Amino acid sequence: AQTVTQSQPEMSVQEAETVTLSCTYDTSESDYYLFWYKQPPSRQMILVIRQEAYKQQNATENRFSVNFQKAAKSFSLKISDSQLGDAAMYFCAYGSGETSGSRLTFGEGTQLTVNP
Amino acid sequence: EPEVTQTPSHQVTQMGQEVILRCVPISNHLYFYWYRQILGQKVEFLVSFYNNEISEKSEIFDDQFSVERPDGSNFTLKIRSTKLEDSAMYFCASSEGLGSTNYGYTFGSGTRLTVV
Predict the structure, then answer these.
(1) Confidence band (pLDDT; 50, 70, 90) for B18?
(2) Which of B30, B48, B97 is closest, CB to CB, to A103?
(3) b/e for B35-60, b at 16 or more Cβ within 10 A?
(4) What percentage of chain A carries pLDDT values higher than 90?
(5) Does the CA dihedral B27-B103-A113-A7 come out positive or negative?
(6) In this predicted structure, which of A88-92, B16-20, B71-75 has the lowest mean pLDDT?
(7) With an 8 Å Cβ cutoff, are B31 and A44 in contact?
(8) Do A102 and B48 touch (CB under 8 A)?
(9) pLDDT tens column, A7-33
(10) B28 DSSP assignment
């Protein structure tokens, strides 16, 4: 079974600064997807960024980028130029790339605070 | 941007009562899911549904739970006899098959279930 671990329950960053959220995972599959979801106080789950394991290039979406280290099974999220609206709970999640419709496995989450 | 729609946004029910949570997945998605998040905890998989039948379920999804796709658009989660510990946020999600270009999981805004 796959597991996802987020070792930082809480992180804080100054507005306009950069912060990195950590995520490690364990799997025996060679083909999979990794996701970062943002959950603001409204508790909606919003997709931030997605990485396909077969792609060596790290995914980027505007101010959000990942550092995907497949051998180390590490998938960190970097937020540049942090904004007050980035304050939220962030979840790392794993999805199989070998079976359609498989479950997403989530980490415990990291609560990000952005200080003005 | 296509959305997954969930109703109601908040439901309060008496212990022992039956509740039905409703979801309208994205129309061209094939796979449908229910997840649960107890306050302050991580998101947990309940069940996945494909081709009008359950494809996978977790140990949480016991005989008190059932899912149904009663027509071409709705996807429902029924809890037969609610318990206090069923109080949680319930998320519906949907996805395409693995072959799609933008494979990923889209979540609804959630239904907050409170059992009193």
Answers:
(1) very high
(2) B48
(3) bbbeeeebbbbbbbbbeeeebbbbee
(4) 84
(5) positive
(6) B71-75
(7) no
(8) yes
(9) 999 999 999 999 999 999 999 998 999
(10) T
Q: Is A47 close to B55, i.e. CB distance below 8 A?
A: no
pLDDT of residue B107: 95
**Chain A hits for B59, Cβ within 8 Å:** none
Which of B:25-54 have CB within 8 Å of A?
A: 30-31, 33, 35, 37, 41-45, 48, 50
B24 touching chain A per CB within 8 A: no
Give the model's pLDDT for residue A102: 87
Question: Whose CA is closest to A54, among A40, A64, A65, A68?
Answer: A68
pLDDT value at B99 more than 80: no
Neighbours of A7 (CB within 10 A): 11
- Strand ranges (E), A1-116: 3-5, 10-14, 19-21, 24-26, 32-39, 46-52, 60-61, 64-69, 74-79, 88-96, 104-106, 110-115
List chain B residues with CB under 8 Å of A110. none
Structure tokens given for B75? 């996807």
What digits encode the pLDDT tens for the residues B60-96?
Answer: 999 999 999 988 789 999 999 999 999 999 999 999 8
The answer to whether the bond into A116 is cis (omega within 30° of 0) is no
Copy the structure tokens of residue A19: 């912060």
Mutation target to probe the B interface, by most B beta carbons within 10 A, among A10, A104, A105, A108 is A104
